[in-house]
Amino acid sequence: MLEHPDFGGIVYYGRDVTERVRAQEKERFLSLLVENSLDLMLVADAEGNARYANPANERILGYGREEFIGMSVPGLLHPDDQEQVMVLFVEAVANPGVLPDAFAQGRYRSKNGSWVWIEGTAFNLLEDPVVQGIVCCGRDITERKELEERLRFLSLLVQNSSGVITVVDADGTVRYASPSLKRLLGYEPEAFLRMTPQELLHPDDFERALDRWREISRKPGIRPVHSDFRYRHKDGSWRHLEFHPNNLLNDPGVRGVVSNIRDITERKQAEEEIRRLNETLEARVAERTAQLAAMVAKLEAQERRLRESEEQFRTAFEQAAVGMAHISLDGSYLRANEKFCGITGYTREDLLRLTSKDITHPAGDLDEDLEHLNRMLSGEIDSYTTEKRYIRRSYSQVWAKLAVSLVGDAGRTQLLRVRRRGHKRPQAGRARSPVALDQGDRDPASSGTGTHERRDLTRTDVQRKHDQESRPAAHRKARRLGSDSGRRSGHRARPDRGRAIGRFSGKVVSSPRTATDQPGICRTILPIPLPSSMR
What we know:
- The protein is α+β, with helices and mostly antiparallel strands.
- 37% of the residues lie in helices and 21% in strands.
- The strands form three sheets. Strands 6, 7, 8, 9, 10 and 11 form a six-stranded antiparallel beta sheet that branches. Strands 12, 13, 14, 15, 16 and 17 form a six-stranded mixed beta sheet that branches. The protein has a five-stranded antiparallel beta sheet with strand order 2-1-5-4-3.
- The longest helix has 55 residues, at 265-319.
């Protein structure tokens, strides 16, 4: 306008834009705040569809801004949290321009599928021409929730533990006691914190507990040691408590001595009962041991007397002046002394292979002997004596008187005492003379001084003797005449052929049952003098 005739110059126009600049600066400031905020900020329409989200959305939920725009925010909620969050959102929609006074917590599904805890609120600016939406603000509280869960878990453990947890300061003040203290000692934790150790500890344990506290407080760190003390229960009784202290005075999160306490009263009572029972048992064992020692000494004395009695019996058996034999109930010979062997003419080895029946004359003597034995076994008689003929080893006969009794365990053996009478049964009323019992058998075919050469005897040999007994009487008489002729001609008569054999009398001799080794019968031959006409 320099060429204008009226102005002839330059015209400048201007207006005040201060407010606009300030507004722009404020907008930029707020934009920077929103864009760089750590909290999630978004704008949604009345249906909950996202129209805007700040960059924190991508950091928290993982969705990009363009990706997130148009998504349904309620659709990201965890099913269990939708009701609680949507109540707040609906309330905000229904109350435009009203600042919220509540927050809602819920889990939102992130892009990677995990659940993120977000605590937020909603503000209705749908009528604002600039915003025209529901402004939602929220922050990530996932770590806080996890920490709360851990704390809740630990709190439940402490509160429901059977033991008690206490925290004691460096000066000995109890700062914390878990709720289970009431179950343990009957006190409320708050009342317990106001009590002194002198009020709680047993007088006999106080000094020991004090020394233990001093030792623990001087050594920071966890110590796997324990002690037990008696504490007074609210009802006045004493409870044995076991302490497991850990010195955490240097830990900034604790700054105290943490003790785990448990009640061991029942265990202590059981230990005391076991100790008492052990003492009682030891006393009884000692008493029983003394009784057993006395019984052993008594048994040893009885055994010693038994051995002496048995030795005496064996000596009497072997050195008896009459024949003695020990026979089982089936008639088998178990033992015999020398006199019995001399009377019967058999060796001991012969007798062990034979029975009483084998060497008993079968003509009536055996039946009579068995009849007496059966009466004795039935209990009708205790013992019996009889006279019978034995078939000697030389096949000759010898009359003997027997005394028989049952001995051994429950009377299951026979004790036989035998005395030799001669080859012919004596007649009554005649003079009797004794006969020597130690004469051995002689061989009939040898001279008066020769002895018969012995050999093993079998039952067949004895049967042969039985056959000889069945020969005619005339034949036996001829043999006796021949024997008399031999004596008249100067030959010496053999002791087993002589007829001047004494007749003997005898009696039953009992012996201790314990002195016999095996069950059987022992028989003794007793001498009866012969009449003078038979000498």
